[in-house]
């Protein structure tokens, strides 16, 4: 049985913006005591002040998760402040949008160190403390690309695949030992955060999230829920789950969706020229922001109903299968007539995510369900 949130001490990495920032605000609203970690000291302090102003508890520990010594210090300072850590959220992440051959060794190493080793370091640092407590929850933020790799993000895809592998292995070890420590993997689809404007881009344009896009509130809701309720993994958005199912059933289909008309490439370009500013090697100056520059759904009906209720997951898999059938049928029609664009929810036909979502929508309509 997990502690209620108002009794929990929570650590969040990557808390200065995006998913991490929104998650911190939601935990604080529910009464948790927070340790906020990221590289941007000013943004963290502004967030902590906002939380305290609203009656919450928060301390700041400036941390680069790519450095083991700093992550180990983060764990020790969190325990020293609150006496324990009930939930640890490994959320920090960076990316470089580029063809693999255009990446430098420094860029490759940095993405792996932050996105993979940062999560491994987090678990390594907090596990001894959770073992002493006999309880705790580690929440690793993966991605839809933990299941389905995408072009122009080869190293990010590799790191997030590895995060899933690490998370699954750690979970089994702890369950085998009956350690009382839950390990959850969060798998967001496209989320409207500053991640895209802050990512390094070698495409000539700023990065953009393929549709359908969700707001960070949808991810924060799932993370906070997992802190109280044991969950194995949670997909954010129906398209993310459908992409997983396609990968299981027909990886070639997933490839073809991204290759058709170059949609897997073009859907990740914003059309706005890149300004050369990024957070790969250091934080972007200025206050932290929760939201990016893209419209999106504030929540996911699918995630809320099915992913956060394990007993309904079989039904969720059935719905995802329906979406896959619709998508396969749509792709087959366009394979026979290649001059036709892939389907799109917004009528423009530009993007792998839109093609996927349209297939899901088409499949759902065949059984009279609204997505």
UniProtKB/TrEMBL annotation:
Residues 264-295 are annotated as: Disordered. The keyword Oxidoreductase applies. Its EC number is 1.-.-.-. GO terms for cellular component: membrane. Keywords: Oxidoreductase. Residues 8-194 form the Ketoreductase domain. GO terms for molecular function: oxidoreductase activity. InterPro entries: KR_dom (IPR057326), NAD(P)-bd_dom_sf (IPR036291), Sc_DH/Rdtase_CS (IPR020904), SDR_fam (IPR002347). Gene3D superfamilies: NAD(P)-binding Rossmann-like Domain. It is an enzyme of class 1 (oxidoreductase). PANTHER family: DEHYDROGENASE/REDUCTASE SDR FAMILY MEMBER 7B, DEHYDROGENASE_REDUCTASE SDR FAMILY MEMBER 7B. Belongs to the short-chain dehydrogenases/reductases (SDR) family. NCBIfam families: PRK07109.1. This is Oxidoreductase SadH. It comes from Aquisphaera giovannonii.
């Amino acid at each position: 049985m997990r502690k209620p949130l108002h009794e929990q001490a929570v650590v969040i990495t990557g808390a200065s913006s995006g998913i991490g920032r929104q998650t911190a605000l939601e935990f604080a609203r529910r009464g948790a005591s927070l340790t906020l970690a990221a590289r941007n000291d000013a943004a963290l302090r502004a967030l902590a002040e906002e939380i305290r102003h609203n009656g919450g508890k928060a301390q700041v520990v400036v941390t680069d998760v790519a450095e083991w010594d700093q992550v180990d210090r983060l764990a020790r300072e969190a325990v020293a402040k609150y006496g324990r850590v009930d939930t640890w959220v490994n959320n920090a992440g960076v990316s470089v949008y580029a063809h693999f051959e255009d990446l430098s060794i420094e860029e490759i190493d940095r993405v792996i160190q932050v996105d993979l080793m940062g999560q491994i370091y987090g678990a390594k640092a907090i596990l001894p403390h959770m073992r002493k407590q006999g309880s705790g929850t580690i929440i690793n933020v993966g991605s839809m690309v933990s299941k389905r790799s995408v072009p122009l993000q080869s190293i990010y895809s590799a790191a997030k695949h590895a995060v899933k592998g690490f998370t699954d292995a750690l979970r089994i070890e702890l369950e085998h030992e009956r350690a009382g420590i839950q390990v959850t993997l969060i798998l967001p689809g496209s989320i409207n955060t500053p991640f895209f404007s802050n990512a390094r881009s070698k495409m000539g344009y700023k990065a953009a999230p393929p549709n359908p896009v969700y707001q960070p509130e949808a991810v924060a809701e799932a993370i906070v829920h997992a802190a109280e309720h044991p969950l194995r993994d949670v997909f954010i958005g129906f398209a993310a789950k459908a992409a997983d199912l396609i990968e299981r059933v027909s990886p070639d289909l997933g490839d073809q969706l991204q290759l058709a008309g170059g949609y897997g490439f073009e859907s990740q370009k914003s059309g706005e020229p890149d300004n050369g500013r990024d957070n790969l090697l250091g934080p972007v100056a200025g206050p932290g922001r929760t939201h990016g520059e893209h419209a999106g759904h504030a929540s996911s009906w699918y995630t809320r109903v099915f992913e956060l209720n394990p007993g309904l997951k079989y039904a969720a898999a059935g719905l995802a299968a329906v979406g896959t059938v619709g998508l396969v049928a749509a792709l087959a029609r366009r394979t026979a007539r290649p001059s036709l664009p892939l389907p799109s929810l917004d009528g423009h036909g530009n993007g792998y995510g839109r093609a996927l979502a349209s297939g899901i929508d088409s499949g759902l309509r065949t059984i009279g369900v609204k997505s």
